[in-house]
Amino acid sequence: MNNAVATNSEGVILVTIKEKLGILNSIEIVDYDADGSTLYHAVVENTFGNQQKLKAIGITDDEIEGAFDEEGNIDIKDFAFERCGAKWFHEDFGGFIDYIPK
Fold first, then answer.
1. Which of 26, 39, 43, 61 is disulfide-compatible with 34, CB 3.0–4.6 A?
2. Residue of 41, 71, 39, 74 whose CA lies nearest to 55
3. What's the predicted TM-score (pTM) here?
4. How far is CA 39 from CA 2, 35, 48, 69, in A?
5. Given a cut of 90, is residue 13 above it in pLDDT?
6. From residue 95, how far is each of 38, 66, 72 by CA, in Å?
7. Sign of CA dihedral 49, 51, 54, 58
């Protein structure tokens, strides 16, 4: 069985959109704000485990630090939509998904 991990030239682990979203959705969202069409923020606790999951999908330490909110938690909304291929967020659909439900 081949357990090799594909990486790019900078050593970033390459994973599929579904895998990235699965990792993001495995992190507990402690606060979010949305109005039905716009997600304003999706905040997770700033823990070592959550940072490791973000790094597994290619998010850097600097990017994580740049996403801290006023309380020191991490807003992952931009990571989801800009880096992981999310198209929508809704708890009823499991969190971040790669399509817009009808």
1. 39
2. 74
3. 0.83
4. 39, 7, 25, 15
5. no
6. 14, 22, 22
7. negative
pLDDT category, 9, cuts 50, 70, 90?
low
Query: Among the listed ranges 15-19, 25-29, 85-89, which one has the minimum average pLDDT value?
Result: 15-19
Cβ 76 vs Cβ 44: under 8 Å: yes
Rg (C-alpha) for the chain, rounded Å, is 14
